[in-house]
Structure formats: structure tokens, C-alpha cells
Amino acid sequence: MYMPTTTILRGAMRAVLACAAVTLAPIAAPAHAVSLLPQEVFATGGYTSGAFVAIYGGGASWDLKERLPARDASGLGIRLDAQVAYWLGKGNPTPNTQVWDFSATPVFRWTFTRPDTPRLFVEGGLGIHLLSATRINNDRIFSTHVQFGEMLGVGTAFGPRNAYEVRLFLQHVSNAGIKLPNWGLTYPGITLSYALP
Predict the structure, then answer these.
(1) Average pLDDT over the chain, rounded to whole?
(2) Which of 28, 52, 64, 92 is the most exposed place for a label (fewest CB within 10 A)?
(3) pTM score of the predicted model
(4) Do residues 169 and 150 lie in contact, with contact meaning Cβ atoms separated by under 8 Å?
(5) Residue among 129, 153, 130, 133 at smallest CA distance from 143
């Protein structure tokens, strides 16, 4: 099913703004204004051999709980990840070879106190995804453009200001049974990120 690009972009912007509003509302405080500029940029990649889909993405993160300049605090943190990902179907022959995925995900992270270097953390998030198509390859059918995403990950921060991060994650995207068939997509991946000065 084809959707015009302008419709996809409008829907993606609405999803990002709605997710940001829901995330910011309960934690926003007058003493700390959230910057519109991202604190972090990242690139991500993944592959699922069961569905024959490769995922390439990039995005930005906004800290929703203020971080120390050295980015060395332990304990609970929260951020908003906004990402654009390109799904490439490798199940040939098929006319359904690509999907664009626009997503916004609030992510909760627990950073361990020890070791000091490198910093180790675990994280998880629930977000919303808007897909440009409802099918990839011949048999992976999503049925709706709006999807939900669950992510669990582990990683480490290192370097000056702990500005560099490597994260391993498991991502699941599906429509939560709103409409069938609902094959969804689950894939492992890796994220490389850099904290902006």
C-alpha cells in the first residue's frame, strides 16, 4: 500500500511531538528548561535473518533528566530518541523491498556505579513508529502504518566526557494486535553514539 511522502512526514512529526509531549509533561520542571537541540546523535544497524531484513538508521537524543557535564552520573536517566530508519528487504524476488520507519521512543537507563571507566548501563524503552508501507518482502505483513516498539539494551560509555557509547539492543516493532495479520519485526542491533559538546 502506497502513502504519499508528505502524509508520512506529517504523521511522523505528529507522532514525535505527541510522544515528546507525553514524556515531558510529568517530568518537566520550571527550574530546568529542556533544550530543543539534541544532546546526542547516533547511528544504528541491525539484521534479522528470520525475516531477511537489514535495518540502517540515524537519529538524535534529548536528555529529559539533566546530566552532569562529565556525563558520569550513576542511577536512573531518561531521554527521548527520535530516529529515521531504512528497512531493506532481502527476500528476493519481491516487489516489497523497502520500508521507512519514523520513530520516537522515551528510553529509561540505569547506569551502574562501578566500574568508573568504562560506564556500564542497561536500558529499555516503549515508543511509537510510523511505517511508510505495511509490508516488506513477500510474507512480512504489518497491516497498519502505526506501530509500537519495545527496546531492551546494554551498553558502555567511554572517552572524554563519556561522550562515546556502544549499545547492543533487541528491538520489537508490531501493531499490538490492532489489526491482523500482525507479523511484526524483531531484530538485534548495535548503536554507536556521540554526545554533542
Answers:
(1) 86
(2) 92
(3) 0.81
(4) no
(5) 133
